[in-house]
Amino acid sequence: MAKEIRAEDLKVRLLGISGSGRHANTDLAVKKALEAAAAEPFVAETDSIRLGDLNLVPCKGCMKCWGWRAPAEDEEFECYESHDDSAMVMKRMKWADGIIIGTPIYHGQKSSLLAILMEKCHCFGFLSYTRNAGKLMNKALGAIEVGYTDWGGHATVYTEVLTWGIQMGMWPAYWNGDYYGDTQPHRGGMCATVDAKSEFDGDAILKESAKYLPPLMGSRNMRGVRNMGRSTAIAALHAKAALIQIEREGVKLPEIRPFKTYNTKPEEGSYLDKLVKEGKLELTADARAPKW
Protein backbone atom coordinates (compact mmCIF):
# COMPACT_ATOMS: atom_id res chain seq x y z
CA MET A 1 0.00 0.00 0.00
CA ALA A 2 1.37 3.39 -0.97
CA LYS A 3 2.38 5.64 1.88
CA GLU A 4 -0.07 8.49 2.46
CA ILE A 5 1.27 11.93 1.60
CA ARG A 6 0.99 14.18 4.62
CA ALA A 7 0.56 17.92 4.42
CA GLU A 8 3.82 18.22 6.34
CA ASP A 9 5.62 16.38 3.54
CA LEU A 10 4.60 19.12 1.09
CA LYS A 11 6.02 22.03 3.06
CA VAL A 12 8.46 24.01 0.89
CA ARG A 13 11.48 26.23 1.53
CA LEU A 14 12.12 29.41 -0.43
CA LEU A 15 15.31 31.37 -0.96
CA GLY A 16 15.38 34.99 -2.08
CA ILE A 17 18.50 36.31 -3.83
CA SER A 18 19.00 40.04 -4.32
CA GLY A 19 21.50 40.86 -7.05
CA SER A 20 21.86 44.50 -6.00
CA GLY A 21 25.01 46.03 -4.58
CA ARG A 22 23.10 49.09 -3.32
CA HIS A 23 20.83 47.42 -0.77
CA ALA A 24 17.79 49.41 -1.78
CA ASN A 25 14.71 48.67 -3.90
CA THR A 26 15.73 45.21 -5.15
CA ASP A 27 16.38 44.04 -1.59
CA LEU A 28 13.02 45.47 -0.59
CA ALA A 29 11.20 43.80 -3.48
CA VAL A 30 12.68 40.38 -2.68
CA LYS A 31 11.79 40.87 0.99
CA LYS A 32 8.16 41.67 0.12
CA ALA A 33 7.96 38.63 -2.17
CA LEU A 34 9.24 36.34 0.59
CA GLU A 35 6.81 37.83 3.10
CA ALA A 36 3.89 37.09 0.77
CA ALA A 37 5.15 33.55 0.18
CA ALA A 38 5.65 32.93 3.92
CA ALA A 39 1.97 33.69 4.52
CA GLU A 40 1.01 30.58 2.54
CA PRO A 41 0.33 27.59 4.86
CA PHE A 42 2.54 25.24 2.82
CA VAL A 43 5.69 27.40 3.13
CA ALA A 44 7.86 26.12 5.97
CA GLU A 45 10.91 28.40 5.77
CA THR A 46 12.25 31.36 3.88
CA ASP A 47 15.78 32.75 3.70
CA SER A 48 17.46 35.55 1.78
CA ILE A 49 20.92 36.40 0.48
CA ARG A 50 22.20 39.81 -0.63
CA LEU A 51 24.91 39.36 -3.21
CA GLY A 52 26.19 42.86 -2.44
CA ASP A 53 27.37 41.62 0.95
CA LEU A 54 29.53 38.89 -0.56
CA ASN A 55 32.86 38.50 -2.28
CA LEU A 56 31.99 37.28 -5.77
CA VAL A 57 34.82 37.02 -8.29
CA PRO A 58 33.98 36.76 -12.02
CA CYS A 59 34.33 33.32 -13.58
CA LYS A 60 37.59 32.98 -15.52
CA GLY A 61 36.59 29.83 -17.37
CA CYS A 62 39.38 27.81 -15.72
CA MET A 63 37.15 24.69 -15.86
CA LYS A 64 38.43 23.54 -12.44
CA CYS A 65 34.83 22.99 -11.28
CA TRP A 66 33.97 21.04 -14.44
CA GLY A 67 33.82 17.26 -14.28
CA TRP A 68 36.99 16.55 -16.19
CA ARG A 69 39.02 18.70 -13.76
CA ALA A 70 36.94 18.82 -10.55
CA PRO A 71 38.17 16.45 -7.80
CA ALA A 72 36.03 13.31 -7.62
CA GLU A 73 35.75 13.39 -3.83
CA ASP A 74 34.36 16.94 -3.56
CA GLU A 75 30.65 16.79 -2.69
CA GLU A 76 30.01 20.55 -2.78
CA PHE A 77 30.82 23.20 -5.34
CA GLU A 78 34.01 25.15 -4.84
CA CYS A 79 35.50 27.90 -6.99
CA TYR A 80 39.03 26.51 -7.03
CA GLU A 81 40.36 29.62 -8.71
CA SER A 82 39.08 32.39 -6.41
CA HIS A 83 37.62 30.54 -3.37
CA ASP A 84 34.96 33.23 -3.16
CA ASP A 85 31.51 33.22 -1.53
CA SER A 86 29.72 31.60 -4.48
CA ALA A 87 30.04 28.19 -2.77
CA MET A 88 27.93 29.41 0.16
CA VAL A 89 25.23 30.78 -2.14
CA MET A 90 25.02 27.56 -4.14
CA LYS A 91 24.70 25.49 -0.98
CA ARG A 92 21.65 27.55 -0.01
CA MET A 93 20.27 27.22 -3.54
CA LYS A 94 20.40 23.43 -3.17
CA TRP A 95 18.63 23.77 0.20
CA ALA A 96 15.63 25.58 -1.29
CA ASP A 97 12.62 24.16 -3.10
CA GLY A 98 12.05 27.49 -4.82
CA ILE A 99 14.29 30.47 -5.58
CA ILE A 100 13.25 34.09 -6.16
CA ILE A 101 15.91 36.12 -7.94
CA GLY A 102 15.75 39.90 -7.93
CA THR A 103 17.98 42.25 -9.89
CA PRO A 104 18.19 45.95 -10.64
CA ILE A 105 18.24 46.79 -14.33
CA TYR A 106 21.38 48.53 -15.56
CA HIS A 107 21.26 49.71 -19.20
CA GLY A 108 18.68 47.04 -20.00
CA GLN A 109 20.72 44.26 -18.39
CA LYS A 110 20.82 42.31 -15.13
CA SER A 111 23.38 43.32 -12.51
CA SER A 112 27.00 42.20 -12.79
CA LEU A 113 26.72 40.51 -9.38
CA LEU A 114 23.89 38.33 -10.62
CA ALA A 115 25.75 37.61 -13.85
CA ILE A 116 28.72 36.28 -11.85
CA LEU A 117 26.50 33.96 -9.83
CA MET A 118 24.58 32.70 -12.86
CA GLU A 119 27.80 31.95 -14.74
CA LYS A 120 29.30 30.06 -11.82
CA CYS A 121 26.18 27.93 -11.56
CA HIS A 122 27.28 26.06 -14.70
CA CYS A 123 28.37 23.27 -12.32
CA PHE A 124 24.63 22.55 -11.93
CA GLY A 125 24.18 22.19 -15.69
CA PHE A 126 23.48 18.86 -17.32
CA LEU A 127 26.74 18.91 -19.28
CA SER A 128 29.02 19.59 -16.32
CA TYR A 129 29.61 15.95 -15.31
CA THR A 130 29.90 16.89 -11.64
CA ARG A 131 28.19 15.67 -8.48
CA ASN A 132 26.14 18.87 -8.62
CA ALA A 133 24.83 18.33 -12.15
CA GLY A 134 21.05 18.67 -12.06
CA LYS A 135 20.87 19.74 -8.41
CA LEU A 136 18.71 22.74 -9.33
CA MET A 137 16.41 20.54 -11.41
CA ASN A 138 12.72 20.61 -10.39
CA LYS A 139 13.10 23.68 -8.20
CA ALA A 140 10.78 26.64 -8.77
CA LEU A 141 12.19 29.93 -10.07
CA GLY A 142 10.72 33.40 -9.80
CA ALA A 143 12.19 36.63 -11.15
CA ILE A 144 11.88 40.26 -10.03
CA GLU A 145 13.30 43.20 -12.00
CA VAL A 146 13.62 46.76 -10.70
CA GLY A 147 14.09 49.61 -13.15
CA TYR A 148 13.32 53.26 -13.71
CA THR A 149 10.48 53.05 -16.23
CA ASP A 150 8.27 50.34 -17.66
CA TRP A 151 10.40 50.17 -20.81
CA GLY A 152 13.71 49.89 -18.99
CA GLY A 153 14.40 46.30 -20.04
CA HIS A 154 12.18 44.34 -17.65
CA ALA A 155 11.02 41.82 -20.25
CA THR A 156 14.59 41.22 -21.45
CA VAL A 157 15.97 40.62 -17.96
CA TYR A 158 12.99 38.48 -16.97
CA THR A 159 13.58 36.31 -20.04
CA GLU A 160 17.32 36.05 -19.31
CA VAL A 161 16.73 34.80 -15.78
CA LEU A 162 14.05 32.31 -16.81
CA THR A 163 16.11 31.04 -19.75
CA TRP A 164 19.00 30.41 -17.37
CA GLY A 165 16.66 28.55 -15.02
CA ILE A 166 15.12 26.43 -17.77
CA GLN A 167 18.61 25.32 -18.79
CA MET A 168 19.06 24.15 -15.20
CA GLY A 169 15.80 22.19 -15.35
CA MET A 170 13.92 24.57 -13.04
CA TRP A 171 10.18 25.31 -13.05
CA PRO A 172 9.40 28.95 -13.98
CA ALA A 173 6.84 30.54 -11.69
CA TYR A 174 3.94 31.86 -13.72
CA TRP A 175 1.02 33.80 -12.37
CA ASN A 176 -1.61 32.01 -10.34
CA GLY A 177 -5.16 32.96 -11.34
CA ASP A 178 -6.11 34.01 -7.81
CA TYR A 179 -3.45 36.69 -7.82
CA TYR A 180 -3.38 37.82 -11.44
CA GLY A 181 -4.73 41.36 -11.41
CA ASP A 182 -3.04 43.64 -13.94
CA THR A 183 0.59 42.84 -13.11
CA GLN A 184 1.86 42.19 -16.66
CA PRO A 185 2.95 38.56 -16.25
CA HIS A 186 5.15 38.56 -19.35
CA ARG A 187 7.58 40.78 -17.41
CA GLY A 188 7.59 38.88 -14.11
CA GLY A 189 7.70 40.79 -10.82
CA MET A 190 8.16 44.12 -12.59
CA CYS A 191 8.96 47.20 -10.50
CA ALA A 192 9.48 50.76 -11.69
CA THR A 193 10.52 53.85 -9.69
CA VAL A 194 9.70 56.67 -12.10
CA ASP A 195 6.62 57.81 -10.12
CA ALA A 196 8.48 58.14 -6.81
CA LYS A 197 9.26 61.48 -5.15
CA SER A 198 12.89 60.59 -5.83
CA GLU A 199 13.41 57.64 -8.15
CA PHE A 200 16.77 56.84 -6.51
CA ASP A 201 15.45 56.52 -2.96
CA GLY A 202 15.90 53.09 -1.42
CA ASP A 203 12.13 52.72 -1.02
CA ALA A 204 11.07 54.25 -4.33
CA ILE A 205 9.06 51.16 -5.34
CA LEU A 206 6.59 51.61 -2.46
CA LYS A 207 3.27 53.32 -2.94
CA GLU A 208 4.04 55.46 0.12
CA SER A 209 6.91 56.99 -1.88
CA ALA A 210 4.76 58.05 -4.83
CA LYS A 211 4.59 61.72 -5.84
CA TYR A 212 1.19 61.26 -7.48
CA LEU A 213 -2.19 60.20 -6.11
CA PRO A 214 -3.47 57.63 -6.45
CA PRO A 215 -0.08 55.83 -6.28
CA LEU A 216 -0.79 53.54 -9.21
CA MET A 217 2.79 52.44 -9.95
CA GLY A 218 3.69 51.83 -6.32
CA SER A 219 0.54 49.75 -5.85
CA ARG A 220 1.32 47.77 -9.00
CA ASN A 221 4.89 47.21 -7.88
CA MET A 222 3.74 45.65 -4.62
CA ARG A 223 1.09 43.50 -6.30
CA GLY A 224 3.71 42.27 -8.74
CA VAL A 225 6.34 41.22 -6.21
CA ARG A 226 3.83 39.68 -3.82
CA ASN A 227 2.26 37.73 -6.63
CA MET A 228 5.71 36.56 -7.70
CA GLY A 229 6.40 35.36 -4.16
CA ARG A 230 3.14 33.43 -3.97
CA SER A 231 3.48 32.04 -7.48
CA THR A 232 7.01 30.79 -6.79
CA ALA A 233 5.76 29.08 -3.64
CA ILE A 234 2.93 27.44 -5.59
CA ALA A 235 5.31 26.25 -8.32
CA ALA A 236 7.60 24.80 -5.64
CA LEU A 237 4.62 23.02 -4.09
CA HIS A 238 3.61 21.53 -7.45
CA ALA A 239 7.16 20.37 -8.15
CA LYS A 240 7.57 18.77 -4.73
CA ALA A 241 4.19 17.03 -4.94
CA ALA A 242 5.08 15.65 -8.37
CA LEU A 243 8.42 14.29 -7.16
CA ILE A 244 6.81 12.65 -4.12
CA GLN A 245 4.19 11.01 -6.34
CA ILE A 246 6.86 9.76 -8.75
CA GLU A 247 8.68 8.16 -5.84
CA ARG A 248 5.46 6.58 -4.54
CA GLU A 249 4.83 5.03 -7.92
CA GLY A 250 8.28 3.46 -7.86
CA VAL A 251 9.48 5.36 -10.91
CA LYS A 252 13.25 5.82 -10.93
CA LEU A 253 14.34 9.02 -12.63
CA PRO A 254 17.27 8.56 -15.00
CA GLU A 255 20.72 9.47 -13.79
CA ILE A 256 21.95 12.69 -15.34
CA ARG A 257 24.55 11.71 -17.89
CA PRO A 258 23.94 13.35 -21.28
CA PHE A 259 26.48 11.30 -23.23
CA LYS A 260 27.66 7.69 -23.14
CA THR A 261 30.98 8.69 -24.67
CA TYR A 262 33.20 11.70 -24.08
CA ASN A 263 35.94 13.26 -26.19
CA THR A 264 37.81 15.14 -23.45
CA LYS A 265 40.51 13.24 -21.59
CA PRO A 266 39.93 13.82 -17.87
CA GLU A 267 42.57 14.77 -15.38
CA GLU A 268 43.68 12.02 -13.00
CA GLY A 269 41.50 11.95 -9.89
CA SER A 270 38.69 14.02 -11.41
CA TYR A 271 35.01 13.13 -11.23
CA LEU A 272 34.94 12.29 -14.93
CA ASP A 273 37.99 10.09 -14.47
CA LYS A 274 36.09 8.28 -11.71
CA LEU A 275 33.11 7.66 -14.03
CA VAL A 276 35.41 6.26 -16.72
CA LYS A 277 37.11 3.91 -14.27
CA GLU A 278 33.72 2.73 -12.98
CA GLY A 279 32.69 1.89 -16.53
CA LYS A 280 29.87 4.43 -16.53
CA LEU A 281 31.41 6.53 -19.29
CA GLU A 282 33.58 5.67 -22.26
CA LEU A 283 36.17 7.91 -23.83
CA THR A 284 36.29 8.20 -27.60
CA ALA A 285 39.38 6.91 -29.41
CA ASP A 286 40.51 10.46 -30.16
CA ALA A 287 39.86 11.83 -26.66
CA ARG A 288 42.53 14.28 -25.53
CA ALA A 289 43.13 16.98 -23.00
CA PRO A 290 42.16 20.47 -24.22
CA LYS A 291 44.92 22.80 -25.40
CA TRP A 292 45.12 25.86 -23.19
What does this 3D model show about the protein?
The protein has 292 residues and is α/β, with parallel strands linked by helices. It folds into 2 domains: 7-255, Flavodoxin domain (Rossmann fold, 3-Layer(aba) Sandwich), CATH 3.40.50.360; 259-292, no CATH class. The protein is built from 6 helices and 8 strands. The strands form 2 sheets. Strands 1, 2, 3, 4, 5 and 6 form a 6-stranded parallel beta sheet that branches. Strands 7-8 form a two-stranded parallel sheet. Helix 1 (25-38) packs across helix 5 (216-248). The longest helix has 33 residues, at 216-248.
Question: What keyword list fits this structure?
Answer:
Rossmann fold, 16% strand, 292 residues, six-stranded parallel β-sheet, 6 helices, alpha/beta, two-stranded parallel sheet
| CATH topological fold name of the largest domain | Rossmann fold
Strand content: 15-25%
Helix and strand element order: EHEHEHEHEEHEHE
Number of domains: 2
Q: What is the count of β-strands?
A: 8
User: What is the H level of CATH, i.e. the homologous superfamily of the largest domain?
Assistant: Flavodoxin domain
Radius of gyration: 21 Å
Round the mean pLDDT to the nearest integer and report it. Answer: 89
**What's the helical proportion of residues?**
25-40%
The profile of the biggest β sheet is: 6 strands, parallel
Low-confidence stretches: 177-186
Helix-and-strand structural type: alpha/beta
Judging by the overall fold, what is the CATH architecture of the largest domain? 3-Layer(aba) Sandwich
Summarize the structure.
By secondary structure, the chain is of the alpha/beta class. It contains six helices and eight strands; from the N terminus they run βαβαβαβαββαβαβ.
